[in-house]
Amino acid sequence: MIEIAENKCDFCGCCVGVCPVNCIEVKEADILIEHEICIDCDICVYVCPIEVLYQIEPNKSTSVAAA
Amino acid sequence: MWNEQKEFDCIVVGGGPAGSTFARVAAESGLSVLLLEKDRDIGVPVRCGEAVSDAGLRIFHEPDPRWIASTINRIKLVAPNETVVEFDLHQKGYILDRRIFDYDLAEFASIAGAQIVTKAYIDGLIIEDDKVVGVKGTHVGERFEKRAKIVVGADGVESRVGRWAGLKTTVKLKDMECGIQKTVTGIDVDEHMFDFYLSRKWAPGGYLWVFPKGKHKANIGLAISGLYAKDGKAAHKFLDEFLAWKYPNASVLTTVVGGVPVAKTVKHMVMDGLMLVGDAARTVNPVTGGGIIPGMRSGLLAAETAVKALKNSGPTRKNLIQYEKEWHKIGGKNHERFYRIKETIFRFTDDELNRIANGIANVPEDSRSLLKLFTIAASKKPSLLIDVARVFTGI
Question: Quick check: B95 and B108 in contact, CB under 8 A?
Answer without folding.
Answer: no
